[in-house]
Amino acid sequence: QEKRIFTVQGPYPIIRRLLRARGWVERKLPRTSRQLEQHCGDQNKQRLQTAPSNGGGKQREEEEEQHDEDPSGIHDLMSYLARDQLPNFIWTNFLEAVDHQLLQEDSVLNHYARVDAFTTKEGLCLSLQNLPWIEQADPNTFFPRCYRLGTMDDREAFIEDFRLTAARSLLKLALEEAGDTPVRTKQVPNSAKGACWHRSHISHPKHSTARPGSPLYPELVEEALEVCKQHLSVLQHEDIDRRTPSPCRTCIDWDRFLQQYYRVAHEGAGLVLTRQQRKQCQNLLQSLAEKLPQLDMEGKLNIWILKPGAESQGRGIICMTRLEEMLQLAWSCTAPSVQVGRWVVQKYVERLLTIFGTKFDIRQWFVVTDWKPLTVWFYQDCYLRFCSRPFSLHRLERARHLCNVSVQKWYKTSPDQDPRVPSDKIWSNKQFQEYLAQLGQADAWHQVLVPGMKAAILNTLRSARDRVRFRKGNFELYGADFVVGEDCQPWLLEINSCPTMSPSSAVTRRLCANVQRDTLCLVLDRKDNPTCSIGAFELIYKE
User: Fold this and answer.
1) Which of 111, 120, 167, 406 is most buried, with most CB under 10 Å away?
2) Residue-wise over 246-279: b if at least 16 C-beta within 10 A, else e?
3) How far is residue 343's CA from residue 234's CA, in Å, rounded to a whole number?
4) Residue 206 has pLDDT above 50, yes or no
């Protein structure tokens, strides 16, 4: 009569316990569904037991045991009496798992339909490409450039982006090299054109001067300068009549250019600038920085990250540096679980803020309680996830670059890891704020990071809302993943529906329990009492 019947599908013992404590009665699943849920729970438990121990397995087992605690049998009795009643509240791990015959007109469900528009890598890429048509916002200010390799237009745009990034990176590398090498003011003979020069053969000014005729010809830099100049003209809209060719459609032999760039960026070959070129590089990069929000964070090694378009938990993700290898992988059969052509490729954030020399990312929760009007709640607590090995742009294995708990649990902490990195590879945002204060950046959390994460989340939701199928009364809890640049700016990587609530550490044990408790306060208790506590949730947008 009070419409307090609920159903839980999936490993959510805390939700079950909290609802029972409120006087709600569980309508238990049919036996086949309960067996499936138990089977999934057993599989998860087995994975935790076989993975390297981080304390999470025992915590998970204890929590799953709690979900069957009913010493008096009263909950089982009430569930028996409610067996023919339709639930008023459904919490499930997947929308597809819901039997829609269970839904009443006023039932509350913890999912919306078609949220793949922003919760898959492919959907997020497409939605944010369309953002400038919907809002006065530039996704390049918060989302690393991303392309769907399965579509011809995106693939061609990626190839052009890779080439342009290589040209910019070459100018950065040349300037970096110029800090340690003599600046040539005299032209090098034509016979030296196209020659490469290894760092080990470059004369340092305090030891000697460059030998006359040494193959230090700056042709590669000259080509990169020309490409970047043309790109700047395009960015400044000087090509508005469309007669100016694309910078990548110049007469440059791009295959040769990229092979020589690889030698400089990844094999140690050196560059020498004339004094005039040095000034040109500095001015051109400064002008490009005013037009390209990602110029600084993209670094100089042109690293990109390939991701299967609809996978999660870090499956199939790989970092790469060579264009031809990326295109070949995306169209090969080396990853049978990925549909051909369903890869996305995204610019890797090379200039990262690290903690004790280790990469980390941030898992940030938020809840949408309505799409019309769009209503968004931001959770003020979050946590950091660390990699198992020190950060390096020259070693691209997963243990150094993918922070997902589901990836890192398979790796032991390497001997060269800073001992101050937590053994369970998790920090709370409070610990992170203390670390920032030690760096002299005490205000960065509240003045840069949090506003940046909120803006990225809101712009993403606005870009996708026309594709989401919403149902009044429903809600959904999401987990957004961010990395942090050297300047403390957050960069959105992805948004997860059904973020994991299985604790892998003492920090996540506490925070995951809190966010589930506060979500129930937000979506249930607040209906009856608008002034009730909603814990750490903050309303950040209501249209």
Assistant:
1) 167
2) ebbeeebebeebbebbbbbbeeebbbbbbeebbe
3) 28
4) no
Q: How many alpha carbons lie under 13 Å from residue 407 in its C-beta half-sphere?
A: 21
Minimal CA–CA distance to 192: which of 272, 259, 252, 283? 272
**SS3 at position 135:** coil
Burial class (CB in 10 A: 0-12, 13-18, 19+), 304: buried
pLDDT at res. 238: 57
Count of other CB atoms within 10 angstroms of residue 412: 11
Helices within 120-218 (DSSP H only): 121-129, 131-134, 152-178
Percent of the chain surpassing pLDDT 70: 80
Q: What is the mean pLDDT of residues 236-249?
A: 60
Query: Which residues on adjacent β-strands are paired with residue 539?
Result: 377
Cα angle, residue 214 at apex, residues 208 and 220 outer, rounded to 5°: 115
pLDDT of residue 100: 73
pLDDT value of residue 201: 32
Lowest mean pLDDT among 332-336, 345-349, 394-398: 332-336
- For the chain, the residue count is 543
What is the C-alpha radius of gyration for the chain, rounded to an integer number of angstroms? 27
Rounded to an integer, the average pLDDT of 133-159 is 94
At residue 329, the pLDDT reads 86
Question: What would the pLDDT profile of 407-420 be if each residue is shown by its tens digit?
Answer: 888 888 888 999 99
The secondary structure of 387-404 as a DSSP string is -SS---SS---HHHH---
**What are the structure tokens assigned to 20, written together?**
């029972």
- Identify the CA nearest to 258 among candidates 394, 164, 149, 158: 164
CB atoms within 10 A of CB 291: 12
Q: Does residue 444 have a pLDDT over 80?
A: yes
- What CA–CA distances, in Å, run from 58 to 48, 151, 184, 388? 9, 45, 65, 21
Q: What local confidence, expressed as pLDDT, does residue 66 receive? A: 45
Q: Out of 236-250, 264-278, 487-501, which region has the weakest mean confidence (pLDDT)? A: 236-250
Residue-wise DSSP of 44-74 = HHHHHHHSPP-SHHHHHHHHHHHTT--TT-H
Cα gap 35→41, rounded to integer Å: 10
- Other beta carbons within 10 angstroms of residue 349's beta carbon come to 22
DSSP H or E segment with residue 489: none
Mind spelling out the 3-state secondary structure of 303-368?
Answer: CEEEEECCCCCCCCCEEECCHHHHHHHHCCCCCCCCCCCCEEEEECCCCECCECCECEEEEEEEEE
Average pLDDT along the chain:
83
C-alpha 356/C-alpha 384 separation (Å) is: 13
